[in-house]
Amino acid sequence: MRSQIPKEGEHVVAPDRILLQTDGQAIMPDVTGWSLRDVMKLADLLQLKPSFIGSGYVFRQNISPGAVVKQHDYIIVELAKPSHIDEKQQTDTEQQVDGPVD
């Protein structure tokens, strides 16, 4: 294991996430539903450059889950209040199905 958050000896309170970085390539997790605070922890651990749109919880991320990430990559996440996440995801799904209009 290369690094972890929280650091050794720090107390963890539910529902805090525990993030571990192992040897090898860093793989982007699916951060859907994560809080801004949790994404900041991930960005710190992997040395990513974060950018945030909105407030609340993640409903969209620019780096696909499972993609290899490198230090100083930009991660952009869009956040929404829990009551609006389903609505925004439904809009995304409709746009993907319909496709662009020519």
Automatic annotation (TrEMBL):
Superkingdom of origin? Bacteria
Q: Which PROSITE patterns does the entry mention?
A: PASTA (PS51178)
> Which Pfam family, an example, fits this chain?
PASTA
Q: CDD domains from the xrefs?
A: PASTA_Pbp2x-like_2
Q: Where is the PASTA domain?
A: 22-81
**Protein name (record):** PASTA domain protein
Organism equals Anoxybacillus thermarum
